[in-house]
Amino acid sequence: MEVVLPEAAELDHLYSNVLTPGNLPGLWDDHEELPVESLQKIFGGGATLMVTHNGYDDPLPIPRVPVAAISQAICGAVHSGHLWLVNGTVSVWEEPVPEGVVMPGAFLYGPPSPLSVFDVLPEKLPEAWQDGLATALSVSLALSQQHDRPLPWSLIRQAITEARHAGLITLETDHAHWPCELSEADSVRIRRPEGPRPQPLTPDGSRDTDKQIRSERVLKPAEIQNLAEVVGELVQALQEWSPTIRVSFELNTTQKELDSKTLKRVNELLSQVSDHWEFRKSNDYD
Length: 286
What we know:
- The protein has six helices and nine strands.
- It is of the alpha+beta class and 286 residues long.
- The protein folds into three domains: 6-109, no CATH class; 117-191, Orthogonal Bundle (Arc Repressor Mutant, subunit A), CATH 1.10.10; 256-286, no CATH class.
């Protein structure tokens, strides 16, 4: 084993969590954004960051990390949702980073704030709507303009999906599936539903149009586990109101169809959760 000082060391790998705000003192300070160029300079060798320890500022030498390893760490942090990457009009979060996007001129941010289901509606986004119609692309462009930087498609797609689940909008398309990639967003038309929004059923099968309240959210796998840990307490706290939990799965089969072998295995797993629960292919756009 060879021991060297940090300033003389060179790492061939950089863990992506090192780059997230708050993990490496002095890397982000109080800045909202971190230029990739600055990150490459910090890990380019010879740099130090000031760390406060017991009331004193101490220099922390940073070992050298190759540019390729830095880029790999950035891609991992962006894909996992810990960082948000913007390069020109390209904005990526919680998705694989396309090749060539991690460049010195790109910027890193912390995870974007969630969008409300109401943020995609004409009342809050009139510039995206015309004659009662919008497209997923026009919503994406208008929201990005509102926030003064291109928002990641994954964030906007989630807001549209949640608005659809809440019955606030309907989706129409000629050939694309939903959820779709940004390249197909212009072919997904968005409308407000005609007539009053249908209310959810009460446990006895009736509808109470005045007293139903609900909370909907698209969850990541890790968040589903978080829900499992607190669902007992939630049900107990709400037991007087007979809470109902509804679960739905949606897959994007634009790039690859769901094969019958995988479908069979998924249905076997779902049936272990609840009898007769199965996954069905559907092109239903309400």
